[in-house]
Task: structure prediction
Amino acid sequence: MNLEKFIRDVPDFPKQGILFKDITTLLQNGDAFRLAMNRMMKKYRGEEIDKVVGVEARGFILGGIMAYKLGCGFVPARKPGKLPYSATREEYTLEYGTNALEVHEDGILPGEKVLVVDDLLATGGTALAAARLVEKLGGTVVGIEFLVELGFLHGREKLSGYKVNSLIAY
Amino acid sequence: MNLEKFIRDVPDFPKQGILFKDITTLLQNGDAFRLAMNRMMKKYRGEEIDKVVGVEARGFILGGIMAYKLGCGFVPARKPGKLPYSATREEYTLEYGTNALEVHEDGILPGEKVLVVDDLLATGGTALAAARLVEKLGGTVVGIEFLVELGFLHGREKLSGYKVNSLIAY
Result:
């Protein structure tokens, strides 16, 4: 099954001139969704993973499933102010200005092997912030998984040093 | 296993006087997380479900897993402006002011059987908006599933007419 054909192109979202890769058309097709998730997880079968960190918000959908299937814990990496308990923060730069991600301080324990999951690899800034949060808490990032990769934005270069995988690359 | 003991009480979040039920301590424990999800899905095994609608953002974690396990599609119900394609909107009232949820217009097809999933049943306003969106698009809500229910807020009354289930009730 060619999963790429389930991704919808939406022009001018979130702003003029950007061709948005909409994954909801894949998620809403039961067969395509299931196949995509199974392919994303295949390489980790039998590997010892302690936690999956899912990046808000679409990374929650994919990361939750991967944690459930791997039988490990799920830890949300959230936008600032969303987590109720003590959290550690990592800022990252956007095209204009900065943003930040937070993870609960007790979300990752020292020595844990952690998989970072998000839907889209664009410039790589968000995923790098998530990976650094894992390391701040003493965890080891064993891989960073994406459903879609926009290769022309060179996000992999920012994530060099990590094992990066994507299912559908443009 | 008593799942309630994996929920953390956080006082004064998101504001003074509110005792927040933090589910991240359950999610980050692989065994508790898996058991919670299996219990939430048990009653739907063998039932024909076409779509799971997960409510942003924590409903994405739980709803994604349920869709994957049930072998059906996943549809996100999002805060306004987050969905890239044509979406239908339902407003709901909060303690102060209003908020809204959106679902893509092609997310649910007429006649589909849909499960609505969120982490927390408080006053029920958000889940009711999600259920109405499903119905606006011609779907039938076969159940509304929560991980945690704050019974003292009487959200079930607002959702009367729907099959409502929660795993952990206070």
